[in-house]
Every structure is written in C-alpha cells, then in structure tokens.
Amino acid sequence: MPVTARTAPKAPSRESRSADTRALTQVLFAELTSLEPGTPEHDRVRAALIEANLPLVRYAAARFRSRNEPMEDVVQVGTIGLINAIDRFDPGRGVQFPTFAMPTVVGEIKRYFRDNVRTVHVPRRLHELWVQVNGATEDLTVLHGRSPTTAEIAERLKIGEDEVLACLEAGRSYHATSLEAAQEGDGLPGLLDRLGYEDPELAGVEHRDLVRHLLVQLPEREQRILLLRYYSNLTQSQISAELGVSQMHVSRLLSRSFARLRSANRIEA
C-alpha cells in the first residue's frame, strides 16, 4: 500500500492568535467583574488575564531593544503596567483591552528608563579608573585628615590631573541628587519645593493618548478633516472650501470617521 505523505498542520497565524487572545480576555473580564476582589477565585481569574496578555507586554518591550537593558527587566516593568491596566479597565467603556492597556504599559516602561537608567554612559575604562580614584580618595582622607586635592590623587595613582577630574565627573552619574537637597551655594530651596502644582488636566492625559492612538488608524484625509473640525474649529462649510469638496461629502466623511473610531475596539493596538 503506498504511503501518503502527511502535511504538517499549519501554525495559527498572528491574527488568529490575537483574535483568540481578545476573545479569551473578554470572557475573563466578564468573569472578573462578577467576582469579589480579594477572593481566591478573583485572584485566579486576574492571574489568567495577566498571563493571557503577556504577549502585549513583550510587543511593547521590543520597542526598547536599542536601550541596551536586559529584556527580562523591561518585560517585568511592562508587566507592572499591564497589571495596573487590568485593575483599572472597565469593559463597559466599549474599548478593547489591548487598546486601553498599551499606553499604560509603554508609559510604565518609559518611566523606568527615566527614573532608573543612567542617561550618561560611562566608558568601562573610566569606570574602572573611577573605582581607583574613589579608593585613593578614601586612603588620602584618612592619611591627611582632610579631603585630598586633585594633584594628590593624581600623584598617588600616577595619572594626570585631567583624568582624575574626568573620573570625579563620571562618578556623579552614579548618584542621584535628592529633590529635597538645597541648591549648593545659592541658598535656594530644594528642587522639591520648586516643583509646580499638579496639573488639573493630568487625568485627561490617558484619554487623549487613547484618542491619538485611535486617530492614527484613520486615512490621512479623514484625520485632516477631524483636525480641521475639532482642533481648528472650522465649520463643515469652511472645511469643504479648504479641501475643495462639497459640504455633504465632508459630512459623510465625518460620519464614516466616527463609525470607524467606534469600531476601532475590534482592532488590536
């Protein structure tokens, strides 16, 4: 009997996996809202939601590969944003969870780079020399009972004074200045006392980011019409004159844009 070669089953496409994840997420959120927070069953469903949406975190983290930070660390930070998004998500808003969660995940990762990663890269040689300068400074301070001069440190290590100064400058990148520390020499209050008040519009940042994310999914012409209508405050008649089309056509395009925005929750972020 002839042997018939079997065709290996095709792996599910990315679109298929995304659709499955969206469907599972909707089911899990429906179950989560019916459970009492803090109960074992609520924690189980919440953990399942985190696990199901980890690919979203990895997708967001991949945008930061060029930062030379361990990808595991970036994914962990992004997962914190995912958890925050899960805890704040309201399925009744009519927005797909990935669309809602992406700005929060990316924002958490950006905050991590802003607060925890040095913006100035210190060359390896300078870093190693800084360790020696630091050690020599401590030894000379004990020996002389005072802080050593740059010349004394340079003589101790048999290097130039300019190298000592470069090392001392590089060493400052390892220490963050306290917001409460007074400004040296000018008698001014600390940075914390000079920060501005909390912007009352801060709560709307998330919503504006979400709208911006949805807006870019529209064709360029429809984006322009929306901007002219709601950013430049032009009437439909003025827009029709600006674009050289009829006012009726502008009205149809606006209606179509709104319909696309309302249905954008079916499109993965």
Automatic annotation (TrEMBL):
InterPro entries per the UniProt record, alphabetical: RNA_pol_sigma-70_dom, RNA_pol_sigma-B/F/G, RNA_pol_sigma70, RNA_pol_sigma70_r2, RNA_pol_sigma70_r3, RNA_pol_sigma70_r4, RNA_pol_sigma_r2, RNA_pol_sigma_r3/r4-like
Name the domain of life this protein comes from: Bacteria
Pfam families tied to this protein? Sigma70_r2, Sigma70_r3, Sigma70_r4
Q: Which residues form the signal peptide?
A: none
One GO term (biological process): DNA-templated transcription initiation
Q: Which residues form the RNA polymerase sigma-70 domain?
A: 73-86
- State whether keyword DNA-binding applies: yes
Q: Which GO terms describe its molecular function?
A: DNA binding; sigma factor activity
UniProt keyword list = DNA-binding, Sigma factor, Transcription, Transcription regulation
- Residue ranges, annotated region (Disordered): 1-20
| Annotated NCBIfam families | SigBFG, sigma70-ECF
| Name by which UniProt lists this protein | RNA polymerase sigma-F factor
